Amino acid sequence: MQLQAFTQSVVSLLAFYLVSIPFSPSLGSNSTPGSSSFCGKIRIQPPFSLQNSVNSSSPPLSRSLLCKSQTVYFRTSLGLFPVVSIDYRDKTLSLSHKPCASSLQFVSPTLLSAGFPSPPQPNSLLLFNCSTSGGPSSSSQKKCPSAFGCSAPLSGTRDRPSSCLLIDDCEELEMGFHPRDLNCSHYSRVYRSSSSSAPGGFQLGTRISFGIPDHVPNPCDECSKPNGNCGVGLRCICHPHECRDKVLSAGANLKPVSSLLPLSLLIILIGF
């Protein structure tokens, strides 16, 4: 009687084990390309993918995001930039940016988005505590809304007046523009958003459009041209071996280089 009970227990245990195998997390397969998944609270769906490995035949955009510690990052040849939202209807992703960042860590919104279509609303720049008048000729230069400011302490600049300059459309600036051109101490990357309650409807960060038109067969062609429109994001997508999957340190000093150099050489020189 005891043997029969033991046999039934073993059979029941084996049956349970066999039924459980397809659902075992350690043995189950990863989500297939084309399916949806989450990284933190952000939904990941085509054209993006969070596959651990993508091959050369995978769509280029499937290689552009990385999930790390439940945070989505946009991969570039400079490093990883945090993604705060993805709008699949407007086909845009938004990169975060801290307010009042030091100009020593300046990364141009244009350098991030070059090679991608223009977003619905242009990316903008807030430049703080500039002591040089003039600057790049751009019709998009305006005074900032009064609510914006930067009170970061600056050594040796006690007499520098607090100021803020708005570059409304970064695409009107030269690729090599840098806040140092106006001797600005700090900056913020911003864009307009209908959901923002800030003055002017601005929100911190940079928007990148991933709605590549059908008439552009291969956007990576720009990265093979001497002066092609290929930013650090597109370069990482087209040349994965140049990606730097490391979160940029807040204290990293990105050294500027001459704007006369071809963009492809510029990206290599300022990488670290």
Report the major sheet. 6 strands, antiparallel
Uncertain runs: 13-31, 154-159, 255-272
- The helix/strand class is alpha+beta
Report the principal-axis shape: globular
Proportion of strand residues: 15-25%
**Which radius of gyration do the C-alpha atoms yield?**
24 Å
Identify the notable features of this structure and list them briefly.
signal; 272 residues; five-stranded antiparallel beta sheet; alpha+beta
Topology of this structure?
Blueprint: H1 2-20, E1 37-39, E2 42-44, E3 65-68, E4 71-75, E5 80-87, E6 92-95, E7 101-102, H2 109-113, E8 123-128, E9 141-143, E10 164-167, E11 186-192, E12 202-204, E13 206-209, H3 232-238, H4 263-270
Antiparallel strand pairs: 1-2, 3-4, 4-5, 5-6, 6-13, 7-11, 8-10, 8-11, 9-10, 11-12
Keywords: Signal
Signal peptide: 1-28
Structural notes for this entry:
There is one protein chain. With 272 residues, this protein is of the alpha+beta class. It has helices at residues 2-20, 109-113, 232-238, 263-270; strands at residues 37-39, 42-44, 65-68, 71-75, 80-87, 92-95, 101-102, 123-128, 141-143, 164-167, 186-192, 202-204, 206-209. The strands form 3 sheets. Strands 7, 8, 9, 10, 11 and 12 form a 6-stranded antiparallel beta sheet that branches. It has a 5-stranded antiparallel beta sheet with strand order 3-4-5-6-13. β3 and β4 (71-75) form a beta hairpin. Residues 13-31, 154-159 and 255-272 have low confidence and may be disordered.
